[in-house]
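SEQUENCE-TO-STRUCTURE ENTRY
===========================
Question of interest: how does this chain fold, as expressed in backbone structure tokens?
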Amino acid sequence: MIGWVVKDWKHNRFRLICETFGSLCFLIALGLMSWYGDDVSIKNVLTIQVIGGTLHAINAYLRKSLNLLLLNVIVNLMCISGLIKMSI
């Protein structure tokens, strides 16, 4: 697995950075929900999810992974619709 990271760092640095920060966004959102429980700000969680989903969608596009791309587009649409509904 380390070989994959080294190879990506040498040849696909932007993709690796998108993937890493996208994953960190999802972990941060999960950490917020775990730490604050029912008191978590859903607006913050959804915003972080949109950022992470966008970074993962870029990564999926660069990897030519249709399933991962569609998954993250759906995640983003759900989060954006939730943010819109909260602001109305």
Summary: Residues 57 and 70 are 8 Å apart (CA to CA). The two ends are 46 Å apart (CA to CA). The mean pLDDT is 94. The helical segments are 2-11, 13-36, 42-63, 66-87.
